């Protein structure tokens, strides 16, 4: 395990899940998130991709992030101001995982649920969008939805993705859609505030939707 945390022991070809953190001027919060994430025992299966936006606040903390010697971390500082959705998009580009769990820099991943989601994406390769449970946003998810791609998935996902945090996307299918082209709608208020709703709507028309939380039994087994 310790060897796989070094650059020499790292093999990104086996990454199943990328935990993607787009961040803007909140290096202090990123450090807190990493205090939680770096405790996980997964190495080859999971990586952490951090895309840094902004040049004003908490720059010393970002420099500290860049000095952390754990090869699971893939950190990139753009050194400029970006539109929020472009920073989110860069996380998807940086990732090596088959799926990307997008997480706000103010929200922790529910660690005990990781095994559940790794199993889920391994057994449902047809999924384009998975709504995960996190410690803050969507912490009260109880229902389980499994909808085939098309109008069923679209109807279950549309206008239900208020927060980016906790959304798992199939990376390959996301990149194929070239969502950067949606920037032409930057004057649209809905797109401006919720570009990820547009991503989900498009991806759900072409692949299945899973909306799920680990059961108490799943949690006990993952401890």
Task: Explain what you see.
34% of the residues lie in helices and 18% in strands. The radius of gyration is 17 Å and the shape is globular. The chain contains 9 helices and 8 strands. Mean pLDDT is 88; it is low at 216-223. Strand 1, helix 1 (27-37) and strand 2 (46-53) form a beta-alpha-beta unit. Strands 3-2-1-4-7-5-8-6 form an 8-stranded mixed beta sheet, sandwiched between helices. It has 223 residues and is of the alpha/beta class.
In total, the number of strands is 8
- How is the largest sheet built, in terms of strand order? 3-2-1-4-7-5-8-6
Using only C-alpha atoms, the radius of gyration works out to 17 Å
Q: Averaging pLDDT over every residue, what do you get?
A: 88
Elements, N to C (H/E): EHEHEHEHEEHEHHHEH
Number of helices: 9
Structure in a nutshell:
The protein is α/β, with parallel strands linked by helices and 223 residues long. It has helices spanning 27-37, 59-66, 84-94, 114-123, 151-157, 171-176, 189-193, 195-204, 216-222, and strands spanning 17-24, 46-53, 73-77, 99-102, 127-131, 145-147, 167-170, 208-211. Helix 1 (27-37) packs parallel to helix 2 (59-66).
Keywords:
34% helix; 223 residues; 8-stranded mixed β-sheet; alpha/beta; globular; disordered C terminus
Write the layout of secondary structure elements.
Blueprint: E1 17-24, H1 27-37, E2 46-53, H2 59-66, E3 73-77, H3 84-94, E4 99-102, H4 114-123, E5 127-131, E6 145-147, H5 151-157, E7 167-170, H6 171-176, H7 189-193, H8 195-204, E8 208-211, H9 216-222
Parallel strand pairs: 1-2, 1-4, 2-3, 5-8
Antiparallel strand pairs: 4-7, 5-7, 6-8
């Amino acid at each position: 395990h310790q060897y796989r945390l070094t650059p020499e022991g790292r093999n990104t070809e086996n990454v199943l899940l990328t935990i993607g953190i787009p961040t803007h001027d909140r290096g202090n919060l990123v450090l807190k998130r990493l205090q939680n994430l770096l405790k996980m025992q997964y190495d080859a299966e999971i990586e952490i991709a951090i895309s840094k936006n902004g040049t004003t606040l908490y720059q010393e903390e970002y420099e500290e992030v860049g000095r952390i010697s754990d090869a699971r971390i893939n950190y990139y500082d753009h050194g400029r101001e970006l539109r929020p959705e472009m920073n989110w998009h860069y996380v998807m580009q940086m990732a090596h995982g088959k799926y990307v769990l997008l997480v706000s820099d103010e929200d922790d991943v529910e660690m005990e649920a990781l095994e559940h989601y790794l199993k889920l994406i391994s057994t449902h390769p047809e999924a384009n969008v998975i709504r995960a449970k996190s410690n803050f946003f969507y912490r009260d998810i109880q229902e389980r939805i499994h909808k085939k791609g098309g109008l069923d998935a679209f109807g279950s996902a549309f206008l239900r993705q208020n927060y980016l945090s906790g959304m798992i996307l199939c990376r390959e299918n996301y990149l194929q859609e070239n969502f950067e082209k949606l920037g032409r709608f930057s004057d649209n208020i809905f797109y401006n505030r919720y570009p990820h709703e547009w991503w989900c709507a498009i991806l759900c028309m072409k692949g299945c939707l899973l909306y799920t939380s680990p059961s108490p039994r799943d949690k006990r087994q993952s401890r």
